[in-house]
Amino acid sequence: MSEEKDSDLTKPEKGGVGPFTLERQGRVISIKSSVQQSRSDIVERMHDSHPKIKKDIDDEIAILLKLMESYDPTDFLISVSWNNCFCDPETYTESQHEGLEAYAEYALSLALTKSIDKERPHALEENLEVFSKTIISIFDKIALFFITERSEKSGDNELHKFRYSSIMSSLYLRGDSTEIHHLDLVRDLFEQQHNGFLLQSFGYDISQIISCVDEILKQINENVNKQKEFFSEVADLHKSYNEYSDRPENKSKIDETLAEEFFSIVENKERKDQLQSRKTDLSENVFEIIPNEKLPLDLLIE
Predict the structure, then answer these.
(1) Residues 216, 295: Cα–Cα separation, whole Å
(2) Which of 157, 175, 193 is the last residue of a domain?
(3) pLDDT exceeds 90 at position 67
(4) pLDDT per residue over 154-167, tens digit each?
(5) Distance (Å) of CA 298 to CA 52, 91, 186, 202, 205
(6) Looking at the structure, do residues 231 and 152 belong to the same domain, yes or no?
């Protein structure tokens, strides 16, 4: 019985939209068409349907915003998150879970467009159901919107396919947040309740610790960039030497003579001298960290 259940879970889900069949297996979306019409007929139908799909999407977004204006938006966020962000790991693997975190993220982005300036009544069960179904419908129509987009543009067909697959991957697969979001999360998480512990245990609060981490990253980046610039200029100087040695009048000269003549040119000698003086400034280990006023030694030791 368990094997039968697992088999059902891994079956592709299919749904027809116009002349196309959208198939989802886990989080992978694929599109197939069994239409026997000529290419021109299909393109014409796609072209005609494109603006209507856009209007349908806008109308459904308006429905979601109206619901959030009329009822407590937290109710919708809780409902969508519970259905899409959580599952029993004993029953489902991540790829088998039917929910999509993208739905919850989209609901949150809508909620953040509205200020909570007054108390609102709690949403009813039917309101939550409409909200959830409308989000799913919007995502399905967005997929169709970008399929029909091809009918309004000329150019490389492979490029359009790549554009579509990239958009769909970004739309349905939950992405990572940015570094600044991570820092804000850590700061807010520790600042209110744990700064006392950090000060007592390490002598620094969370903002000071984050500042130290920034200084560590800054020093490493500067070390890497210095070496990158140095070796780039070495490569440029070597290229100039090779071009000089390839001149017809220099073909028969030995290396010692070539080098002597090449560096007798003022510009080349100055470039060589600058590189030699900068070589001593390069850190042998790009990950070497030097304590300073922004990066106390005692914090590094801890």
Answers:
(1) 8
(2) 175
(3) yes
(4) 556 777 778 877 78
(5) 64, 49, 22, 9, 14
(6) no
